[in-house]
């Protein structure tokens, strides 16, 4: 994740240039006829940011019962509200599995609305592929009290050690509003190295943790058999 810029300290009085060399204020350098336009632009910039979300995302069908919600890549910022991750959705007979729920409580609830446009089946598991904050911090909002959150044992350790700092950093990058209500939900279940077979909602999945890739705790999710 990108490191936030350092906050620049204001120039101290002793370091200021002498008054005779100070440039004219920006406002005075704008031609009088164009000042109304500059004022209008400033008024637009001063408008409050639109309420979350800007646009309701939709899942894209990959195959039978497999969907993806993709986001434009890039660093988290106030415009994208940290939603730079991809989310997977696996629909089983009796429930759905969410893979990488998103960066915040608000993003997670928005993602759930996209799930509800496809199916009314409950979320029965939330799987985290790795410990980056834009992927995992919506886990609590999406899993609720009844669905387990699952990750590799290494992702569990990374989240335990780093998530509190990552939450602060992501809030700094995206803004308090985008991250309000977001908490840290550590995985309830972990999987060891190798391949683990699990059945969630009637859908057989293979959880594959082979070690370092994107992070030390990477977990791939495979659905070998389609659910009709
Ligand atoms: Zn990542």
Write down the secondary-structure element order: HHEEEEHEHHEHHEEEE
Helix and strand content put the structural class at alpha/beta
Q: Give me the count of strands.
A: 10
Which of globular, elongated, flat, extended, rod-shaped describes the shape? globular
What is the average of the pLDDT values? 81
- Any idea what the CATH superfamily of the domain at 66-222 is called? Ribonuclease Z/Hydroxyacylglutathione hydrolase-like
Low-confidence blocks of residues: 1-31, 33-52
CATH-defined topology of the domain at 66-222: Metallo-beta-lactamase, Chain A
The CATH class label of the domain at 66-222 is: Alpha Beta
**Helix percent band:** 25-40%
Bound molecules: zinc ion
Which CATH-level-2 architecture of the domain at 66-222?
4-Layer Sandwich
Biggest sheet layout: 7 strands, mixed
């Amino acid at each position: 994740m990108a490191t936030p810029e350092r906050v620049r300290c204001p120039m101290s009085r002793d370091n200021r240039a002498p008054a005779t060399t100070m440039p004219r204020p920006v406002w005075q350098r704008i031609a009088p006829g164009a000042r109304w336009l500059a004022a209008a632009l400033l008024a637009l910039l001063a408008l409050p940011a639109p309420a979350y979300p800007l646009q309701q995302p939709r899942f894209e069908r990959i195959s039978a019962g497999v969907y993806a919600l993709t986001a434009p890549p890039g660093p988290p910022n106030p415009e994208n509200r940290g939603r730079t991750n991809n989310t997977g959705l696996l629909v089983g007979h009796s429930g759905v599995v969410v893979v990488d729920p998103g960066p915040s409580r608000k993003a997670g609830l928005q993602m759930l609305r996209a799930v509800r446009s496809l199916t009314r089946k409950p979320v029965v598991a939330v799987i985290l592929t790795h410990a980056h904050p834009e992927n995992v911090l919506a886990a609590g909002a999406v899993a609720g009290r009844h669905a387990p959150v699952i990750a590799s044992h290494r992702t569990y350790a990374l989240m335990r050690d780093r998530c509190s700092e990552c939450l602060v950093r992501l809030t700094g990058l995206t803004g308090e509003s985008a991250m309000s209500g977001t908490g840290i939900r550590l995985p309830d279940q972990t999987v060891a190295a190798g391949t683990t077979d699990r059945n969630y909602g009637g859908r057989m999945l293979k959880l594959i943790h082979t070690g370092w890739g994107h992070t030390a705790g990477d977990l791939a999710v495979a659905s070998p058999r389609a659910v009709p």
